Amino acid sequence: MADIKAAFEQALKDVKTLTKRPSNDDLLALYALFKQGSEGDVSGSRPGMLDMVGRAKYDAWAKIKGTAKDAAMQQYVAKVKSLLGK
Predict the structure, then answer these.
(1) Does residue 29 contact residue 67 with C-beta atoms inside 8 Å?
(2) What domains lie within the chain, and their CATH numbers?
(3) Integer Cα distance of 49 and 73 in angstroms
(4) Among 43, 45, 50, 67, which is 20 to 30 Å from 86 by CA?
């Protein structure tokens, strides 16, 4: 667990060093995995139709509902590594 947390914290720093902006799908995946890994399952109500960004983020997070925090952290680390080309 401590190794996963340390790798997750490092990935949070590493993602800021990306030289190229990830695709919207990659950004949504990163957001969803970060939220699932740090907070757990999605909560609250889905944003309204006019909040397209908030709605996309909510939907991405809701898709991975039920994923364990540790698993989400591992997937986040793997996603960041793939974006960095490691």
Answers:
(1) no
(2) 2-84 (1.20.80.10)
(3) 30
(4) 67
